[in-house]
Write a structure and sequence with these properties.
Blueprint: H1 8-18, H2 29-39, E1 41-43, H3 55-60, H4 73-87, E2 92-95, E3 101-104, H5 106-112, H6 129-138, E4 143-144, H7 145-152, H8 155-167, E5 171-177, E6 185-190, H9 191-194, H10 203-214, E7 216-217, H11 219-226, H12 230-242, E8 247-248, E9 253-254
Antiparallel strand pairs: 1-3, 2-3, 4-6, 5-6, 7-9, 8-9
Helix pairs in contact: 6-8, 7-8, 10-12, 11-12
Length: 264
C-alpha cells in the first residue's frame, strides 16, 4: 500500500477493516469501549470533512445514513453510549476531532492531555474568561449543562466556552441529569476527575496512535485532527520514521504492516 491515487481502493478497504466498518458489528456498550480502545479516536457520527473512524459506522456498517428514518435502534444505542462511555470512564467524549463529537481512548487521552491532571489545570492555559468560569464551577462537582448555561447567562457564550474547554480536553460529558420538564441535561465534569491524566502530554505516542489508525497520513491531517501546528505534526511523524515505526514517501507517512488489521 503506497500513497498514490492507484492505491486509494486498497487504502479504503484497509481502513474499513481497521475502523471496524466491516466484520462483526458493535452491538453492546462493552464492545463499543473495545472499539474506541482499539482505534484510539473516533467520531460519534461520520462527517464529510473529518476523515476518521466513527462509532456509528462500527455499529451500523458502511454507507448507512444516521437518522435517515428518524431515531432508530442504532441511533438510540449510539446516542446513549456517548454519555455512558465517559460516565463509566471507558472513553472520553467531547468536541475534539475537527470540532465534532469525538471519543478518545483513555490511553490516547492521557497522551494528549495538556496539563498536570489537577482541578486547576485550566489556570495555566490561554482560555477565555468564560471558560475559566465554567472550569471553576466544575472544580467542586459535575454540573448539568442547564445549570452552567444559567450561570453564564448567555447561551452562545456558554457554547463557545464549552467547545474551548473540550478542545483543550479539560472537560468531558459524564452522563445525563433528568429534568422535571423537557429533555435531560448533559452532565459535564472535569476530565481529570473521570480519567487518569497528567503530568503532561506524550505527543510522540499520540502521533504513533494516529498513524496506527489512519494507516496513511500527512502532517496536515495529523495537525487538523489534534489541533497541532503542521511543523510539530511533521516532526513527530519524522521521529516515527527515525525509530523504524513508519515509512515516508516524501509526502505521506505509512504505518507498519502490523497496524493494518483491527484487533476485533
Amino acid at each position: 500500500m503506497t500513497g498514490g491515487a492507484a492505491s486509494e481502493p486498497t487504502l479504503g478497504r484497509a481502513r474499513a477493516r481497521r475502523w471496524w466498518v466491516r466484520g462483526r458489528r458493535v452491538g453492546s456498550l462493552a464492545r463499543a469501549a473495545q472499539f474506541v480502545e482499539d482505534v484510539g479516536f473516533a467520531l460519534l457520527f461520520p462527517a464529510p470533512r473529518a476523515l476518521a473512524p466513527s462509532l456509528w459506522e462500527a455499529v451500523s456498517g458502511e454507507d448507512v445514513e444516521p437518522f435517515a428514518a428518524g431515531m432508530g435502534a442504532d441511533e438510540e444505542k449510539v446516542w446513549a453510549w456517548k454519555d455512558e462511555l465517559p460516565r463509566r470512564g471507558l472513553a472520553w467524549h467531547g468536541a475534539f476531532i475537527a470540532g465534532r463529537g469525538s471519543f478518545l481512548s483513555p490511553r490516547l487521552l492521557a497522551a494528549l492531555y495538556p496539563a498536570a491532571g489537577e482541578a486547576g489545570d485550566h489556570e495555566s492555559l490561554p482560555l477565555s474568561a468564560t471558560a475559566h468560569e465554567i472550569a471553576r464551577a466544575l472544580a467542586g462537582q459535575p454540573q448539568p449543562s442547564a445549570v452552567l448555561r444559567t450561570l453564564i447567562g448567555d447561551r452562545n457564550r456558554y457554547q463557545r466556552a464549552v467547545a474551548e474547554l473540550q478542545r483543550h480536553l479539560l472537560i468531558t460529558t459524564a452522563g445525563v441529569r433528568e429534568n422535571r420538564t423537557g429533555w435531560p441535561s448533559a452532565l459535564l465534569d472535569l476530565t481529570c476527575r473521570r480519567f487518569h491524566v497528567g503530568p503532561g502530554p506524550d505527543h510522540g505516542l499520540a502521533a504513533a496512535r494516529f498513524l496506527d489508525t489512519m494507516l496513511l497520513a500527512t502532517p496536515a491531517e495529523l495537525a487538523r485532527a489534534f489541533g497541532w501546528p503542521v511543523v510539530q505534526a511533521r516532526a513527530r511523524l519524522d521521529e516515527l520514521v527515525a525509530a523504524g515505526m513508519a515509512t515516508c514517501d516524501g509526502t505521506s507517512y505509512l504505518a507498519p504492516p502490523s497496524a493494518r488489521e483491527p484487533a476485533s
